[in-house]
Design brief:
The structure holds two protein chains of two kinds. Chain A has helices at residues 14-43, 47-55, 58-89, 95-101, 110-121, 126-135, 147-171, 175-183, 188-217, 220-224, 230-241, 244-271, 291-326, 329-367, 370-379, 387-413, 425-449, 453-461, 466-495, 498-503, 511-520, 524-550, and strands at 90-91, 287-288. By secondary structure, chain A is mainly alpha-helical. The model of chain A is unreliable at 1-12 and 273-280 (pLDDT under 50). Residues 1-17 and 362-366 of chain B have low confidence and may be disordered. Chain B folds into two domains: 4-246, 3-Layer(aba) Sandwich (Rossmann fold), CATH 3.40.50; 256-363, Nucleic acid-binding proteins (OB fold (Dihydrolipoamide Acetyltransferase, E2P), Beta Barrel). In chain B, strands 6-7-8-3-9-10 form a six-stranded mixed beta sheet, with helices on both faces. The chains are: A mainly alpha, B alpha+beta.
Chain lengths: 552, 367
């Protein structure tokens, strides 16, 4: 039918369409600019910098980055896809609870998990203490401050990405596919390898790609474990030498890795569609496990949830209890200030990101062309770009602007206004929005997409102009999705570390930067209260996702 | 001449001279890519008239409605509403045309109450008049008691009436209805046909409604327009469309019809079941005579030339498919009390000597 072809592209609305196009393009330009700046730094390499890098840190960082990607990739793949298969295909005690409990580790940022593990398993930690007390030695315990430690920690917090997408992917396989395979003599295991894996491969690969993006962006965890990667290198060069040029060249290299992960995700995700058209067919039947294996399955799930979520939560709670018991009013004041700063940043970023998402999404809808969709895709690639890369890109973009402003005010008015952009939270908000616009865009766009074109048509025949339609029809109807979008961005900003650390105004502390600094000094109790706050806030979006994923 | 900017007042403007049609389409055409959705449509609708557009899906009927509403713009031709050009030589946006539209899925705003939905198009009215108007149109569709409910709390028929009330509220020049009854169950649909006509007539509004159901069209319309493949085949009173269809397509589409080959001889149409008036057909022309089931009389006769090949019991009457010696199948109806078995010999006779005939070359459904 022709009803949808002209759903929003109505004739005679040129000013609106032009405005929407211009606004969308501006948002996309601003979002991509930092990446372009960094990329251009990579394309115009400075020989001296690369010689220096190559002679010092670069070989190690490159090797470590690749090792981290391989380790985290394999780890999240096995843990995520495997656990998802366990709770999808088998029945065992606690299965339905584990199905959502296994998603909780997502609430714990890697750098918080990192220092908790460090404190727990290090020489001075309770585990080694207990082992020494019981067995007289803990020498057989692998050294935690090692590549393996870093990979383990990141796998434990990042496997939920793979787990969730795999769960959704498995759901696309119908019971009749299973029955057909059984009739043809396939065992459960053969069915898994010959049918389930090929069908859900795109979803699983997309999940691994998301996990890899997060692993690439992390600089804090790897530093705890003395395992310097490229992200760590960028932050280290920036903080150690304040050499933006050198940081940007390394950031360019890091961005190249991220683009590879992005490519993996995009190409795989595009294919996930073909098996979603199954309609309302019943899902796979679950096989009841018998005897010892059912308890083994429960124990495996319990172990993962325990190590990846309960352990950090209880450890943080214990430290926080000590801290809260002995802290004076001055310390409470500091915590409140941290919380307030985080709250302000997260709220502002959420607000700006959601507004940008609404403009972008409405613009795409109004113009309706393939080019408009491409602009939106471009504007939302920030989620794949590691925070340190974005931060360097924004510094490279805004610093000349700041200097120009000062040059002019000094020249014309004789005053120096200071660093208006890089010295304030403007740069920070810019970084957050560029990084998390995709998160806001996805739910906003999905919510607007659900509004039937006929509602818009009805509003127009009833005399409503574009503003009135937006304010009275589209926004109220999309409100739930927009609130979800704002919540997701809010929480992501609360947890964000590299952008915050690199772009914050001098002396401006948030919950995350405080945790990082305290943990870097091994002051666990000092880090515990803000870290606990971050984890608890982080449970919010996980709850939303649990709702989404476990709904059959 | 008005400009689009002051067009919102169009709805409240003085009535056009009584001779002017409310809606006039002249040579309107529209393409969607390779598909010619509408070709050279010329049509006039008088003030207060209810026009029903019927045709199979993809015939261009919905396109015509969208062009009138301004939800799409025509590639050729001109559209005039109340004597003013809205598409063609100039463009008036849909929100400024003063046209009400009722959608197939009702398109009620789910976040607004019934009263708020109805008031949506009255934003520029003063508050007291707005409230009074909402009450008035809700009373018209008999929904005053549901004013504070939300659409999802209403039944399908009630939602339908809210959609009509909302479209009527701002006193539009024209009310456009796009298959408004197709989402209702059969019983409710019959009821709503009567109700819809009553409401439109009570509001004194000019209505244009699209449907694919010719029975619905006959029940509601003052005039019926039959579309096929993007073209208007025929427009006229329901009786004319049914009994004097302009082409074979219309004859087929608006009701059961059989076609019997015949030849013209001395101003008579000679067929295997009898003769009909020849009218202006030239001597020797090959024609097809259209026969509705009610145009034929069946008599069970052992020596009858026809054979019953199928019986369709329909309650009040039964329809019989009768095969004539030439192999032609004709459908005839008989009151329910009489029952003829399949295989029975029958005699088929025309009830009247007058019948519609088409030249044989037209045998393919076309216009």
């Amino acid at each position: 039918m022709q009803t949808t072809t002209a759903s929003m592209t109505l004739p005679g609305r040129r000013p609106w369409r032009l405005g929407a196009t211009a606004a969308s393009m501006a948002i996309a330009f601003l979002a991509v600019l930092p990446v372009l700046v960094v990329a251009s730094a990579l394309l115009t390499p400075t020989a001296a910098i690369w010689q220096h890098l190559w002679a010092t840190l670069l070989p190690v960082m490159l090797f470590n980055t690749v090792a981290l990607l391989v380790g985290v990739g394999l780890g999240t793949l096995v843990l995520g896809a495997g656990l998802a298969w366990l709770v999808t295909a088998y029945e065992f005690p606690g299965r339905s609870a584990f199905q959502w409990l296994l998603m909780l580790p997502m609430a714990v940022p890697a750098f918080i998990m990192g220092f908790v593990f460090m404190a727990t398993f290090d020489v001075a930690g309770p585990v080694q203490g207990a082992l020494v007390a019981w067995f007289g030695s803990a020498a057989w315990l692998p050294e935690i401050r090692s590549p393996l430690g870093a990979i383990t920690v990141m796998t434990l917090v990042l496997y939920p990405y793979v787990y969730m997408l795999a769960l959704v992917g498995y759901r696309g396989i119908s019971a009749s596919a299973f029955d057909t395979a059984r009739v043809h003599g396939y065992s459960q295991a053969r069915f898994f390898w010959k049918v389930v894996v090929p069908i859900s491969r795109p979803a699983i690969a997309a999940g691994v790609a998301l996990a890899l993006m997060e692993a690439l962006a992390d600089f804090a965890t790897v530093r705890f474990f003395n395992f310097p990667t490229l992200a760590d290198g960028v932050v280290r060069i920036w903080h150690g030498m304040w050499d933006l040029r050198a940081a940007s060249e390394l950031a360019g290299l890091l961005a190249a890795f991220a683009l590879a992960a992005l490519l993996l995700e995009r190409t795989q995700r595009g294919r996930t569609r073909y098996h979603e058209a199954g309609g309302r067919a019943p899902g796979l039947p679950r096989i009841g496990l018998a005897g010892r294996s059912r308890w083994l399955a429960s124990a495996a799930c319990a172990a993962v949830v325990g190590v990846a979520f309960l352990l950090p939560l209880t450890q943080l709670a214990a430290w926080a209890w000590i801290e809260l018991g002995r802290m004076g009013p001055g310390v409470a004041q500091v915590y409140l200030e941290l919380a307030l700063n985080s709250l302000i940043l997260a709220s502002l970023a959420a607000l700006v990101a959601v507004l940008a998402a609404i403009v972008l999404s409405s613009g795409v809808r109004m113009v309706g062309s393939r080019a408009a969709r491409a602009v939106a895709t471009l504007a939302t690639t920030g989620y794949a770009i590691p925070g340190p890369v974005l931060a360097v890109g924004i510094l490279l973009t805004l610093t000349p602007l700041d200097h120009a402003v000062n040059y002019f005010t000094e020249y014309w008015a004789g005053v120096t206004v200071g660093l208006l952009l890089t010295g304030s939270i403007v740069g920070l908000i810019y970084g957050y929005v560029a990084r998390f616009l995709a998160v806001a865009y996805q739910s906003t766009d999905a919510a607007l997409e659900k509004i039937k074109p006929n509602l818009t048509m009805a509003a127009r025949t009833l005399g409503a102009g574009s503003w009135r339609i937006l304010l009275r029809v589209h926004l109220p109807l999309a409100a739930p999705g927009i609130i979800v979008a704002a919540t997701l961005v809010f929480v992501d900003v609360m947890k964000e570390l590299p952008i915050t650390l690199m772009l914050r105004p001098f002396g401006y502390e948030t919950l995350a930067t405080w945790v990082w600094q305290m943990a870097a000094e091994s002051i666990w109790t000092g880090a515990a209260v803000p870290a606990l706050a971050i984890v608890l806030v982080g449970l919010l979006p996980v709850a939303l996702l649990v709702n989404l994923v476990t709904r059959r | 001449m008005r400009t689009p900017a002051d067009a919102p007042s169009l709805a409240a403007s003085a009535a056009p001279p009584p001779t002017a049609p409310k809606l006039r389409l002249r040579g309107v055409g529209k393409r969607y890519g390779q598909v010619e959705a509408l070709r050279d449509l010329t049509l006039e609708v008088a003030a207060g008239e209810i026009l029903l557009i019927v045709g199979p899906s993809g015939c261009g009927k919905s396109t015509a409605l969208r062009l009138i509403a301004g939800l799409d713009s025509p590639d050729q031709g001109e559209i005039e509403i109340s004597g003013q050009v809205v598409a063609g030589s100039r463009w008036v946006a849909p929100e400024q045309r003063g046209v009400g539209m009722v959608f197939q899925d009702y398109a009620l705003f789910p976040h607004l109450t019934v009263a708020q939905n109805v008031a949506f198009g009255l934003q520029r009215w003063p508050r007291e008049r707005r409230a009074a108007r909402v009450a008035e149109v809700l009373a018209l569709v008999d929904l005053a008691r549901h004013a504070q409910r939300y659409p999802h709390e209403l039944s399908g028929g009630e939602q339908q009436r809210v959609a009509i009330a909302r479209a009527l509220a701002a006193q539009p020049h024209l009310l456009l209805l796009d298959e408004p009854l197709s989402n209702l169950d059969a019983e409710l649909r019959d009821e709503m046909r009567v109700e819809l006509r009553r409401v439109l007539k009570a509001a004194g509004i000019t209505g244009i409604m699209v449907t694919h159901d010719q029975e619905e069209a006959f029940a509601i319309a003052d005039r019926v327009a039959v579309f096929s493949r993007g073209q208007l085949c025929q427009v006229g009173a329901a009786e004319d469309i049914y009994h004097a269809p302009a082409c074979r397509f219309v004859a087929d589409f608006v009701g059961e019809a059989g076609f019997l080959r015949g030849r013209v001889r001395e101003r008579r149409l000679l067929t295997e079941i009898g003769e009909f008036d020849g009218g202006d057909w030239p001597q020797g022309a090959a024609v097809e005579v259209m026969l509705r089931p009610s145009d034929l009389r069946l008599q069970p006769r052992p020596d009858g030339e026809g054979e019953v090949v199928a019986r369709h019991f329909r309650g009040a009457d039964s329809a019989y498919d009768v095969r004539l010696p030439s192999g032609t199948l004709l459908r005839c109806s008989l009151p329910g009390a009489q029952a003829l078995p399949v295989g029975a010999r029958v005699r088929v006779e025309p009830v009247s000597a007058r019948a519609v005939a088409f030249a044989v070359a037209e045998s393919a459904p076309q216009c």
